[in-house]
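Audit log entry. Action: structure prediction of a protein-small molecule complex. Ligand: adenosine-5'-triphosphate. The ligand was supplied as SMILES and no pocket hint was given, so placement is left entirely to the predictor. Protonation state taken as written. Sequence taken verbatim from the request; no trimming, no tag removal. Recorded inputs:
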Amino acid sequence: MTGEQILDVRRLSVSYRSDGGYVDAVRNVSFKLGREKLGIVGESGSGKSTIGRALLRLLPTARITAESIRFEELDLLNISEREMLKVRGRRMSMILQDPKFSLNPIRRVGDQISEAYLTHFKCSKAEARAKTIDMLQAVQIRDPERVYDLYPHEVSGGMGQRIMIAMMLLTDPDVVIADEPTSALDVTVRLQVLNILDRLVSDRGIGLIMISHDLNLVRNFCDRVLIMYAGQVVESLKASELSNAQHPYTQGLLAAQPRIGGGRTPLKVLDRRPEWKEPLEVQA
Ligand SMILES: Nc1ncnc2c1ncn2[C@@H]1O[C@H](COP(=O)(O)OP(=O)(O)OP(=O)(O)O)[C@@H](O)[C@H]1O
């Protein structure tokens, strides 16, 4: 972990209710987060998003257990829903893959951001509007006054994602959980959004959790990486040390990455093994 510690998750497990009882989606996951970029990588269904939602207690029907989930002075496991409301969307925020699902289609985007600000802070509508314009500028939206008055269907995917980031920034959070924030974007727009997120960490000292199935993206963007397999963190290491990964699943993922100029050798296919469910003890 780099920098001051903001979050310390110990032995988090999450089970979803199913017909015959509960199904484990996350098992005994532990990690710490400083003012840094932490990637969580794994295949679909490995439990990545469940971790993000569990931290924000957005899973009312799931069973969440942990030794502790320390977020600065709080233990998120034990605080009341009322206290959680002050954390969720204010001190800890989430950005999702597709901003269109998070925005109301029949309201102007600027009004939605201002309203989010007014929910958290007592101020006049004019002040909320001014703050919204500032934030749109902070995420490099040119002509924020014009964008303020657009409806969600009038903005592109990349601009929509920046609007979501602007909405989140209004409350100056300490932790941001970004769940596949760029997977719906084309390559150039993806880089712009990643740059904005990168600056949030370096300029504002945010702790960023980047959930992704894209090992290459996380490897190039994050400081540290948790590799998830079947609900567990099987390996945790610095992004720069991924090529020295010890766990066979991580090694398999690395070997299965396509390479430009890699010739005509067929891509390796991951051949799953039961022993992969054994996590390594080594933690970055
Ligand atoms: N609300 C739910 N009710 C029941 N099971 C769920 C629910 N949400 C997720 N699951 C199950 O929990 C497991 C973990 O899902 P999760 O969405 O956390 O995985 P993920 O790694 O984020 O996958 P993806 O990359 O596809 O989003 C999966 O088996 C999924 O089917």
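Audit: result stored. The mean pLDDT is 88. The first strand starts at residue 7 and ends at 18.
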